[in-house]
Amino acid sequence: MTMDFPTAVRTCLTQKYATFQGRASRSEYWWFFLVVLIGAVVTQLIWGLLYLIYTLAIICPALAAGFRRLQDTGRPGWYIVIPFGISLLASLMAPDVPTEEAMAAGQMPDFANLALFSILAIVQLIISLVFLWWLTRPSQPETNAYGPPPTPQT
Predict the structure, then answer these.
(1) Could you give the CA distance from residue 133 to residue 102 in angstroms, rounded to a whole number?
(2) In the predicted model, what is the mean pLDDT of residues 69-91?
(3) What long-range pairs does 115-118 form, CB within 8 A, spacing at least 24?
(4) Helix (H) or strand (E) holding 83
């Protein structure tokens, strides 16, 4: 069963804001993901601080929806934290690339940190592709370990 756009957004932002149990259909997850993505792009373009506030407000329902979506495909929901964790680690390790002025003054980039960051970026890309595959898989039609198949809410 598919869930329409407004119902999916309402479900994820209100009824299941922090619900990590149960299952989420593909339509519920991807309609909500679209809103999360558009909101992130718009808030980042407007103001960096607004983007930070938006991210903090949306992280819980985004994780919850991903958690439920993975469970709908029969996978443990906690797997959804793996790409978030790697992304956080990569952002903390992001190389501090010196400006042209700093390089002219003799400051060189930390090549070891840059190499490690590059490896993390490749790992993140591979994991993202695996998760894209998992999150686009059809729902298990029968009741699985995480509950009955999701039904559209009106």
Answers:
(1) 43
(2) 90
(3) 117/90, 117/93
(4) helix 81-93
